[in-house]
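pinning this so it doesn't scroll away 📌
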Amino acid sequence: MFSKILIAEDHESSNFSVQKVLEDLKIPSVDHVYYCDDAFSRLKKSLQSTPFEVLITDLSFEEDHRKQLIKNGRELIKCCKDLYPELKVIVFSGEHRIGVIDLLFKELEIDAYVKKARSDSKELRKAIECVFAGETYISHDLQLPVKTMNTLEFSNYDIVLLKLLSEGILQKNIPKILAERDIHPNSLSSVEKRMNAMKLALTVKNNEQLIARCKDLGII
């Protein structure tokens, strides 16, 4: 089992909950902080002797009188990974939008995601055990939606189309804007084909429902 873990969590109740799980797992060295800057500082300092093996962090941190350079968990993960790529990362958060969670695995290469809920202590324990075994983990109630989500890869091109729609641009006018930005393909048929593919994948009937669904998922 891991021997040195760092917790970054600004809510005391959640912080204590995580500490209890680590205590039950008999993790010998656990450090906990309430600010992202402190977490990054502790990790940096640990590299001089015995590095932390795992970072358990929330995504959102409330602002207060203390000014922070690193403002949220996503920024913290990136900073820590850039400094120490071997670090394992477990996100422990109330965020439930599948698109946001999916991007954490794809872009930041986190190792586990545990959603704060009634059974989160058990889920967190499972996550730590899976990560120690070299596996990735995601909360049970999020597994099926993420798997379904992965049936359609949202490319940068797709995101551009969705953002233009969300800004109130009519679908028939999107090709002209794509052409002006030198984005290809920019024909109306190509735009319609991609829009239809996204609507089919997300089981929605029109562009309005598509935009609402993508916002719910955190894709845009």
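📌 and the second one:
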Amino acid sequence: MSSSLVTFIVPIYNKEQHLRECIDSIAAQTLPDIEILCVDNNSSDGSVAIVEEMMSADPRIRLLHETEQGLPQARNCGMAAATGEYIAFVDADDFVDPRLAELTVDSARCCGSDVVLFPFADNRLDPDKFKKVWARKLPRPGVRALDLGADLSLYFTPSVWSKLFKRDFLESNNLLFDPELKQAEDVLFSYSAIVSAACLSQVCDPPLYFYRRRVAGSMISDRSSVEQSFMALKAYDKLDHWLQVNGKKDDFEAAFLRKLLSEIEYTFDLTDDFEAFRCYFDEYRHRYADAFSSEAAKTLQSLPMYRTYIASRDFDEAMFLRSKRAKRSFDEERHRNDEAIRKAKKKRDRLKMEKERIQGSRVYKYARRAEVLSKAFPFSKKGTGKK
């Protein structure tokens, strides 16, 4: 089987609603040397029929079957069959920019990258509109994870679909998705890859992936249950163990703890069950008490998230501190909006004064008078007209 430059892996489980749009967006890549591996994971709707129809029109599309249920298993199936020099992951209810392969491969080859980060947009606020999600820029085109220090997690999300991976790098580091993880499976895979990479690079604009947060049945809604939240903690337990076994714990302990802080904040933002979050909060503090008393944690003690969730005495105090932070954030946002309105009004008044100044000048008045006279007494230009 001939190899391709980029392999796109699309796990599918009952995604017929958006599947055709997803595959069409991949097939439309400006870099045509790609393969699209659609991995069916026991779908019971019309997803397989859609892929089979599209295969007949585009030989780059292949259909694989993974009978063991689970997103990690489906992605591992696709990775085992991939022939591309690079691998990209796409969820079946999302879609991509046609320049994704071209721009990320250019970045990878320019910098010699094992992993390329790129921006995405989501429809968190409006199901029909996608807005770019903020992402911090790397300090230079090619860096190592170690160069980013405790701020490592600020430069990327765990989601594998916001990255391009070099295939032989993944294989040489034996990086696969853990089938035991039913939630936050991207955390272990993405962070293991990031800290193992000899070089990271980044495409800053435009957003290349469009993530549907608001889709019926999407896993994003499941994080509101305490059971699913505990499953996410299991991914961090495994990542902590992986760092220890691979001799990277000392170098990345502070970065790991900072990511843990963002995880509890993320869970709070998703939950709609206050008492469920109380259970999660107690388990979180119990499980990672020793970690947050380590030497590495001292670098994080000035962070608002640390003071809220770790330094607080109990859940009630944490929620009080969280509400204060939320109010302060709201007040700051309102101040920014008020300042923007004030600047807009000031600019409008300045333009109005400038317009009045020009209209009051002698040059403008003479020009205006000449314009009026020319309309009142039109005449032919010299040398024109019929003889």
